[in-house]
Structure formats: C-alpha cells, structure tokens
Specification:
The complex is a heterodimer of chains A (428) and B (303).
Chain A (H helix, E strand, L loop, with lengths): L1 H13 L4 H27 L3 H20 L1 H13 L1 H18 L4 H26 L8 H17 L4 H23 L4 H21 L1 H4 L12 E2 L2 E2 L4 E3 L2 E3 L2 H23 L2 H11 L1 H6 L4 H27 L9 H14 L4 H17 L7 H15 L8 H18 L17
Antiparallel strand pairs in A: 1-2, 3-4
Helix pairs in contact in A: 2-5, 5-11, 6-11, 6-14, 6-15, 6-16, 7-8, 7-9, 7-14, 8-14, 11-14, 12-14, 15-16
Chain B lengths: L3 H29 L6 H19 L5 H28 L7 H22 L7 E2 L8 E4 L2 E4 H23 L1 H11 L1 H6 L4 H27 L1 E2 L4 H15 L4 H21 L7 H15 L15
C-alpha cells in the first residue's frame, strides 16, 4: 500500500488546480450530496406508502443507471477522488444534522438509532464474515451477551453505563472466544451449523435461566445513560434549539459507529486484516505462508462479537427493557442479510444495508402483513442477480465474477467464450 | 416418570418424524453441498396439503382412504414443489459460494412461510387436524400406543426400507451416491447430474411432506411456524448420521429421538432444556465427529 500512497501523492502534487476549478469541484460535490440527502429526507417524510415506493424505485433505477453509464461513473469517481476530504465533511455534517432537521419527529430519530445499532452489529459481523470469511449464524448471541451484561450490571450493581458499555463489549468478546474455540475445527457449512446451534442455545438459556435473566419476563427498568446530572432521557439543548431526547442516543450511536468504521478501515490493510483476507481466500495457502490460523480466527470472532456487545448494551439502555425475543434467530439472520446484501467486506455497504433493513419496513407499514414476504422475494432476487451485494468491495466482486466465469467456461466449453475483463488467475 | 417401554414407543414416534426430515437434509447436502433451510417449510406445507385434502374429501370418503390420499397427495405435491424450488432458486447458483445458496434457502423459507401465513384461510392461527381415531388407543399391558403413532411407525419403516432398496440396489440410487461422493467425477462417468439432483429433491421433499402429515395426525394441530423446529431436529438427525450419508440419516433421527425422550425423562426440568440438548448434540457431533455416528472415525475433514 505504501507504494500506491506514494504514487497517489506524486500524482496529486503534479496536478495543480486553479481556485476556480477547486470551487467548481466542491460545488458539484456539495450539490450532489445535498440532492441525495434531500431525497433521503423526502423519502422519510412522504406520507403515502405509494409515493414512498415510487420514490424508492426511482432512486434505485437512477443509481443503477448512473453506475451503468461509464462516463458518468468515471467522472464521479474522479471528482470524489479529488475532493475526498470535502466529501467527508459534507457527509459528516449531514449525519450530524439529521436530528436537528428532524427534531419535530422524534420517532424518525428513534428509528435512526435502531438503524445505527443494527449498523454497529453489521460492522461487527463484517469483521468475522466480510474480512475473515467465517460464517456466523448465531450472531444475535453476542448482542444478547452485551445487552444482558450491561442491563444486569446496571440494574443489580448500579454501575454507570459508561462502565458497563466496555464491559458488555468485553463479555461479548469472551462469548465470541468460547464459540470460536470449538469452531476452529470446522469449516464453512459446518461452521454455519455450529454457530447457529450456539446462537440458539444462548437464546434458550436467556429464556429459561429465570434467576439470572428474568426468563420470558426479560429485564425491566434499565436506567438510561447519564453524563453527570444530565440523563439521556432529557432533551438535548444545542444552541438555541432543543432536540428531543432520542438525539442523545443518536449521537452516542453515531460515535460508536464512527469507532467501528475507523477500526474497520485501519484494520483492513494492517497485518491483521491482510491475514484475515488470506484466511478467507484460502486457508491452507494462508497457513503455508505462516498465517497463524488459530490466533487470527479467534481474533476475527472476538472483534466481531465485541461490536455486537456494544450494540446490545446501547439497545438495552435505550429501550430500557430487554426480552429473549430481541435475540432470536431472525435477528442473526437479519444482520447476516445486511452484511451480504450491503456488500460483504465493504463497511459502508453494510451500514447502508442496515439502514435499509430498518427504515424500509418502517415506511411500508401499510403492507404490514406482506413486509416479510417482500423481504424474502427481494433477498432471493438479490442473491440471484447481484450475489456480491449492492455495494460490493472490489475484491469480492472480482471473486464472484471469477466464479461466474468458471460456470460460463464449463457451460460453453465447446463454443467460444468471451473472457474479456476476467481476472487473469481465474481463467486458467 | 413413565415406564421404560412407553418411553421407547414415544422415542420411536418422534424419531420417525425426525428421520424422515433428516433424510431430506442429508440428500440435499449430499448432492448440492447445501444446507437447505427451506426444507422445514416444505415439511410444513406438506402438513397443510394434507389438511386441504382432508377438507376436500373428509366428509365423503372412508377414513382409511382419506388418510392414504393425504399422504400420497402431500408427498406428490411437495415433491414437485421441491423440484420447482431447486430449479428456480438453487440451480442458477450451482457455482456460487456456500453463503449465497444458504441465504437463498433462507429467502425461500421466508417466502413459503409468509405466503402461507397470509394467503391460506386463517393461516396465522393453528389449524385442527384430522383425528381419525379420536381418543381410542391400543393398550399393550401398561403401554399405551396411539393408533396414529402405530401408523406413523409402520409407514416410516416402509418408506425407509423402500429408500434403502432404491439407494443401494438401483441404478438411480447409485448415481445419487456417486453425485454425493464427487459431482464432477460422477458427471464424467456419465451420470446425468441435473436429473439426479432433481430426483434427490423430489424424494427429500416428499419424505419431508410425509413427516409433516404425520406430525399433524400425531399432535392433532398444525401451524405455519412448525417448520423451524422440524428443521432443527432434521438437520441434527442428518448431522448425527453424517451429513451426506443417506444410511446415516435413517439412524440419526431415531438416535436423536431416544436421546431427547430419555434426557427429558431423567434430567429434572429437562422439558425446558429439550432443544438445548438438540443443539448441544448438533455442536458436539460437528466438532468431535463431523462424519457422523456411522462415518469412519477419521473421516474427511469437515469442510
């Protein structure tokens, strides 16, 4: 990576843009972000379900068209590359401004907090599944571990949330460790079944160990976090404005999410991230090159479960009530879908996946009964036509294209096959 | 605590159902390397197909004929449905990574379950099932055997024997075992792999549907969400027998049935932890003996 960074610096150094050009670039970036942001807000605020569906379809078609027209896509990529810092600034302002703009509608802020909590879980699972390629179907177990740890510590021992939050993460990570330890012996499909079993056992224990977890009554009256005298259930004053209390949780979740994204970006090209990637690509080859499989697999599980634990803690303290149903198999499945549908390995993709997963059903309340059915159908179509997810990481896209090409070669072995654009190592 | 012979009857009854569902899982895993979460829903749909047939014919035909029709109809319908699911959902994904097929099977399972829940009349609530013998039971000394479980055990025995003969003696069975062993090598030896996969899906789904009807007869009511439990039990049976090992699944379900019944009986408050036991068996088998009870001790690496 060092070479690439060096080359990029050289290129940027050579390219001196006039002030007018810079301003024009920034204007484009700003207006682009503003339009997307405006459309999102519009999508959240339209009253009728039909309008929402039309808007959603329109946006999907527009985004797809944009990505298919090479010249538009190329220009956008160049622009983003030139003004990446400015784009970041716009995105950050947009994210931070969300509760300010929607202060009249606390419910939408609440939903955004839920999306953030799921996003945190998706970022966590992305370490295990997206980076290291370890399939975990019992991910809700770590969410449960975090939520119950934090809830019990604060209701029974009266510990502060700021102490229980990291403890929840650590306890969840130790759960991750104990799941991962036996899992070192098994691989993909078998791993899926083992983790599924663990997830289900944790849920059943939460349901049946009444003295510890309250059984099916759950745990009630979990206190909200507080900073000094300021409880998170108080409205948040920002200058002249007063934001509803949900904004407190919103900023908390955004901060945690930022930590997650930062960790993902820093780890991706570190020794750890590279080792994970090597394990995902080919375990045997990785082991031959001296990657310590046991250590890195354990670390992948523990990193993933740590973030689920954090998410669980925030969830418990925000809702103030937890119940075994919050941690059942559909939750694990939902997080898995966010990661796979969003684009495995791409941390932004999985967050967008989580946002969609939480917001779209909220907006489709009119179709209450058909929501799950629609979810199933869209998942099926997505896996069929875009198996690498909506926003695939580049590497993953190439991998899957390779698989498709293998199939193509096998099918048309007799006829000529167009292999243009195929990754070279896959065509042999 | 109930008497020992009584427990054996109970274990055989639930073991029969687990076995029939487990055979499906093992067949799909064998030919496609797929953990098919949609199989539990096919089982559920089998029970509902039986219910529809019962509604249509129950008032006009004699009970024995109605039951026969229920089994045959459910097996034929769901066998066909299994083939259709394979063709629509899994065939396009033959060369995709495991994860994609797994999520597709989850998607199919959601579609089938939710579709039934919303479009079947009163589908969200439990449905009363045919109870051909009412409360009459067969008393063998102290042991009580419901006529339903008797039918269920005999039918399972017949089906397993037929399947055993099919798999071990016929050309079709051999091509199925060959595909399970090594798909590409089988293809090179002239096995029509696509047809074999279709056949495996037909047989697996039909047996699952049969277990669904049995479940309805045995417990007297069915519900749209019954598939999930069946899935768990089914793939635990398949894992116990060694995933992909067809003979293994025939045994695995009964082993699981016995373990469950006796643990629930012997452990205090065992009833609450019944499913924990199933999952623990699943995990322990996968970790320590991934080739199953019948497989060689140092079998192929689980991967």
């Amino acid at each position: 990576m060092a070479e690439v960074d060096y080359a990029r610096q050289q290129l940027q150094g050579q390219e001196r843009r006039s002030t007018a050009r810079v301003l024009a670039d920034r204007a484009w970036i700003f207006s682009g972000t503003a339009v997307v942001y405006g459309l999102v807000l519009l999508g959240l605020s339209v009253e009728q379900t039909l309008h929402f569906v039309l808007l959603l379809c329109g946006m999907v078609v527009a985004a797809y068209g944009w990505s298919r027209i090479a010249i538009l896509r190329g220009r956008t990529a160049e622009l983003v590359q030139r003004e990446i810092t400015f784009l970041w600034a716009c995105v950050i302002v947009g994210v931070l401004g969300y509760p300010v703009l929607l202060r009249g509608n606390p419910y939408l802020i609440h939903v955004a907090v839920l999306a953030g909590i799921y996003g945190l879980m998706a970022v966590g699972l992305n370490f295990t599944l997206g980076f290291a390629g370890l399939l975990d179907l019992g991910y809700a177990a770590y969410f449960a571990a975090g939520a119950y740890t934090s809830a019990l510590l604060s209701t029974v021992f009266g510990l502060s949330f700021w102490l229980t939050l990291p403890l929840a993460g650590l306890v969840a990570a130790s759960f991750g460790f104990s799941v991962a330890w036996p899992c070192l012996r098994v691989h993909d499909r078998y791993l899926a079944l083992v983790t599924l079993g663990f997830g289900a056992i944790i849920e059943l224990l939460a349901r049946n160990l009444r003295p510890l977890t309250g059984g099916t009554d759950g745990i009630l009256n979990i206190p909200p976090p507080a900073i000094g005298r300021f409880s998170f259930l108080d409205p948040l004053p920002v200058g002249p404005l007063t934001l509803p209390f949900q904004a407190n949780f919103y900023y908390l979740v955004v901060a945690l999410l930022a930590v997650g994204v930062l960790a993902a970006n820093r780890l991706k090209n570190s020794r750890l991230g590279r080792s994970w990637e090597a394990i995902r690509e080919d375990e045997t080859a990785a082991a031959c090159f001296g990657v310590d499989l046991i250590r890195y697999k354990l670390e992948a599980f523990m990193t993933g479960s740590f973030f689920a634990g954090l998410a669980g803690a925030v969830f418990g303290h925000m809702i103030s009530f937890i119940h075994p149903d919050n941690f059942n198999f559909p939750v694990s499945m939902g997080v898995l879908c966010m990661v796979v549908a969003g684009g495995m390995g791409n941390v932004w993709g999985v967050i967008v996946g989580a946002v969609f997963y939480v917001f779209v059903p909220e907006r489709l309340r009119d179709f209450e009964k058909l929501r799950l059915l629609l979810f199933g159908v869209s998942l099926l179509l997505l896996m069929r036509f875009r198996p690498s997810g909506v926003f695939p990481s580049r590497r993953r896209r190439l991998e899957l294209r390779g698989e498709e090409l293998d199939a193509l070669t096998a099918r048309r072995a007799a006829g000529p096959v167009d292999l243009a654009g195929a990754p070279a190592d896959r065509t042999s | 605590m109930e008497t020992f012979p009584q427990q054996i009857v109970n274990a055989l009854t639930i073991g029969s159902m687990y076995t029939l569902v487990g055979i499906g899982f093992t067949l799909f895993f064998g030919v496609l390397g797929l953990i098919n979460f949609a199989h539990g829903e096919v089982y559920m749909l089998g029970a509902f197909t039986g219910l529809v047939i019962f509604w249509a014919t129950g008032s006009t035909l004699p009970v024995a004929l109605v039951m026969l029709l229920m089994f045959v109809g459910a097996m034929a319908f769901c066998g066909g449905l299994g083939v259709l699911i394979e063709w629509l959902a899994f065939k396009p994904l033959r060369r995709m990574p495991v994860l994609i097929a797994l999520i597709t099977s989850l998607a199919v399972s959601i579609i089938v379950r939710e579709g039934l829940k919303e479009f079947f009349p009163n589908g969200a609530n439990p449905q009363r099932y045919l109870a051909p013998f009412g409360l009459e039971v067969l008393r063998l000394g102290p042991v009580i055997v419901a006529y339903e479980s008797l039918i269920l055990m005999v039918l399972t025995g017949v089906l397993i024997a037929t399947l055993y003969l099919l798999v071990s003696r016929t050309w079709l069975g051999r091509s199925m075992r060959a595909t399970a062993e090594d798909r590409e090598a089988a293809m090179m030896m002239g096995v029509d792999v696509d047809r074999t996969i279709c056949l495996a899906f037909f047989i697996g789904s039909a047996l699952g549907a049969c277990a669904g009807v049995m479940n309805g007869l045995n417990y007297g009511s069915i519900k749209f969400d019954m598939g999930w439990t069946a899935s768990i039990k089914g793939f635990t049976s398949a894992v116990l027998g060694g995933l992909g090992n067809i003979y293994g699944a025939m045994v695995g379900g009964f082993v699981l049935g016995f373990l469950e019944v006796f643990v629930v009986d012997l452990v205090p408050k065992g009833g609450q932890y019944k499913d924990v036991i199933t999952f623990a068996i699943l995990i322990l088998t996968l970790v320590f003996r991934p080739s199953g009870l019948l497989g060689p001790a140092a079998g192929r690496r689980a991967g």
